[in-house]
Amino acid sequence: MSSDDRRKHRRELISPHLKVVLPENKQSFGAFITNISGGGVEVYSDSRLEQGQDVDLHISFESDPKTGKDEVVTGAVKWVKLFGNRFLIGISFKDINTNDHPILSGFLDFVNK
Asked: Is the pTM of this model over 0.85?
């Protein structure tokens, strides 16, 4: 059985801009989304997060992330793996809805077809 057969949601490669914000102290850092599904994202980062930690994901689908058109999604860190001297981090979405996340919801609808 391949890893794709075990997944609840299909994964799709994308390249939006991502800023991870820690709600408890408002610290933030950039990360790269390596894949996304209806359940969450896998990100690649220089910064380590802890399993169980809550984060706010500021996702921009604009070519210029400085437009301020981010969609903010709350997530929870599910796993962290050391990858060289950086980290792969699995983050599950806590709540996505079409009112607050119209672009992300539309993208995920497209991915799930």
From this structure: no
